[in-house]
Design brief:
Elements: H1 2-5, E1 10-13, H2 19-29, E2 33-37, E3 47-50, H3 52-65, E4 71-75, H4 80-95, E5 104-106, H5 113-123, H6 126-130, E6 135-138, H7 141-153, E7 163-165, E8 182-184, H8 187-204, E9 214-216, E10 219-221, H9 232-235
Parallel strand pairs: 1-2, 2-3, 3-9, 4-5, 4-6, 6-7
Antiparallel strand pairs: 8-10
Helix pairs in contact: 3-4, 5-7
Length: 236
């Protein structure tokens, strides 16, 4: 399709089916390609990236500072960015001596229904009743919203009994009940910067090797803060 379109430049949003092989095939045919995603490592073409590492640490540090130690991670293994956030969560817990509390669950996107079903299943389990995790790090807002609805159905008050933090800061995040605390990657700014970078490559006839990546720092958007919890020693 791209070979026939005679496109002057191509913006790639997120990942492509086929992964690195698909990217390599595309960039072998086109000189001016810019990627927009959360990955910060250099690829075969320049890109505008959100810093998933920093964003994950912002979310988990927020929960940790509130006193949470039993933190669960729910992610979509179908995307490289969310797999990375899941691994960062595990490293975060290990570094703080909470390896025994690591709990990860997988779901799919882009609609909230799969995470809602997962939440209904999890909140009905005995371990969630007797030693309920006090916080969930959801690696996307879509996942978080499904879990929030499941918590509501299970009569689990968010954020008083369970804190949920998302990732992406999609438009609806500010209007959920309660409003969702999440990590903003400034998606509009990423798109604008990528378009400017691509136009500059075309106008200046810059090769990929002559074009630097741009990494935009994420920020934590706190919308509903529960009372601080006890420390791990008190909880245990």
């Amino acid at each position: 399709m791209f070979e026939r379109s005679h496109a002057d430049g191509i913006l790639i949003l997120s990942d492509l089916a086929g992964g690195d092989a698909a990217f390599a095939d595309l960039t072998s045919q086109h000189r001016f390609v810019i990627g927009v995603s959360d990955r910060t490592e250099r690829t075969s073409f320049p890109g505008v990236y959100g810093d998933s590492d920093l964003g994950t640490r912002l979310a988990l540090d927020h929960l940790w500072q509130l006193g949470h130690r039993r933190i669960v991670c729910v992610f979509d293994p179908g995307t490289a960015d969310q797999r990375q956030r899941g691994k960062l969560y595990e490293r975060f817990m290990v570094d703080r001596g909470q390896a025994g509390a690591i709990a990860t669950y997988q779901t799919t996107q882009p609609d909230p229904e799969p995470s809602y079903r997962l939440g209904r299943e999890l909140f009905a389990r005995a371990e969630f009743t007797t030693a309920r995790p006090t916080a969930i790090f959801a690696t996307s807002d879509t996942i978080a919203i499904g879990l929030m609805q499941a918590a509501f159905q299970a009569r689990i008050a968010v954020p008083d009994r369970l804190s949920i933090v998302g990732f992406d800061d999609i438009d609806i995040a500010a209007y959920t009940i309660p409003p969702l605390t999440t990590v903003s990657q400034s998606g509009v700014e990423m798109g604008r910067t990528a378009a400017e970078l691509l136009l500059d490559m075309i106008d200046q006839d810059r090769s990929p090797d002559e074009t630097e990546d741009v990494v935009l720092p994420p920020r934590l958007v706190v919308r509903d803060r529960p009372p601080p919890r006890a420390t791990a020693a008190t909880q245990d």
